[in-house]
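quick q for whoever's on today - can somebody do inverse folding on this one?? i tried earlier but teh output was garbage lol. tokens:
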């Protein structure tokens, strides 16, 4: 008989792929909680929890303090801006993400945005539905072949987005201060070290970097102003990396051709948001990384990460705060 079972907290939205890994584990007690749980009841659950799996629930210093037995925190996904990483690091608790589980989905979504913008997909669909075929030449689509795309961030998702753009015969520029020029060239792309100098060259800019103090507001009014009037911006990373007010102002002034946004500073996006009043913006409800396939992979990866800590074989490659590994 197994005693001293390890208590873990998992969101009640955890899918079958995650539960399939937990059911055989008689040494673990999984307690479900709603992702929108209020702070106080969540902290009460943390009192004797050794592991936590997060979807949308924030995890900051008060949550860390409420969990004296905590050994690992795992995100279902790759973003972690809702987690106070330094608080975990001070306690030597690893924060783990799901690696490449949703990388393909996000890269495909970025390409979907690029294609839809270039081919004016929303406008053309509306013309057919309205029977306005005579207006179809007013703003014709463009080809991707021969165009230049600037990929900001060359990690798990950026590398995949770049490869897909290359398959469309695009010239791919890559801006990532943390990746060597050699590695970028090895992927068939051109490294750029000066973002301000690269922006005027781009027909498309797609954002794939994490949100942190360094990247918040990265594409501000000044930088958006350096882009071509015919250029497009795509953001499937995090809201706030592209300054929304500056983007909208540039679009309204005709200084940019359009944008594809899956992420926003405030989510859900308010129904009266000025962004929704622009016919130059196409949107998605933070779903770039969410497909049938990626959800299964993320659920399994998150639980697998957690179990790797308890089993003494931590998946080091999925740890955000590597300094806790020693």
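ok took a stab at it. sequence:
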């Amino acid at each position: 008989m197994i005693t001293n079972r390890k208590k873990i907290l998992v969101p009640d939205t955890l899918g079958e792929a995650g539960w399939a890994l937990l059911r055989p584990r008689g040494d673990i007690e999984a307690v479900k909680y709603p992702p929108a749980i209020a702070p106080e009841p969540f902290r009460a659950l943390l009192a004797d929890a050794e592991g936590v799996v997060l979807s949308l629930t924030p995890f900051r210093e008060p949550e860390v303090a409420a969990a004296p037995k905590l050994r690992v925190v795992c995100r279902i996904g790759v973003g972690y801006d809702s987690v106070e990483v330094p608080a975990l690091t001070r306690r030597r608790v690893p924060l783990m993400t799901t690696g490449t589980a949703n990388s393909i989905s996000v890269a495909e979504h970025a390409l979907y945005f690029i294609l839809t913008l270039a081919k004016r997909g929303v406008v053309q669909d509306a013309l057919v539905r309205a029977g306005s075929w005579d207006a179809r030449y007013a703003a014709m689509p463009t080809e991707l072949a021969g165009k230049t795309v600037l990929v900001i961030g060359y990690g798990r998702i950026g590398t995949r987005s770049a490869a897909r753009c290359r398959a469309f015969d695009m010239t791919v520029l890559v801006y990532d201060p943390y990746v060597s020029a050699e590695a970028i060239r090895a992927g068939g792309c051109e490294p750029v070290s000066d973002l301000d100098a690269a922006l005027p060259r781009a027909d498309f800019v797609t954002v794939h970097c994490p949100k942190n103090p360094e990247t918040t507001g990265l594409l501000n009014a000044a930088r958006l102003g350096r882009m071509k009037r015919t250029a497009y911006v795509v953001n499937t990373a995090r809201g706030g990396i592209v300054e929304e007010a500056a983007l909208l102002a540039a679009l309204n002034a005709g200084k940019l051709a359009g944008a594809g946004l899956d992420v926003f500073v405030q989510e859900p996006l308010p129904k009266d948001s000025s962004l929704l009043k622009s016919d130059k913006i196409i949107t998605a409800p933070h779903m770039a990384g969410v497909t049938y396939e990626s959800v299964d992979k993320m659920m399994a990866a998150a639980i697998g990460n957690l179990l790797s800590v308890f089993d003494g074989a931590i998946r080091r490659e999925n740890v955000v705060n590597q300094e806790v590994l020693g």
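fwiw Residues 292-310 form the longest helix (19 residues). also DSSP finds twelve helices and twelve strands in the chain. so keep that in mind when u check it
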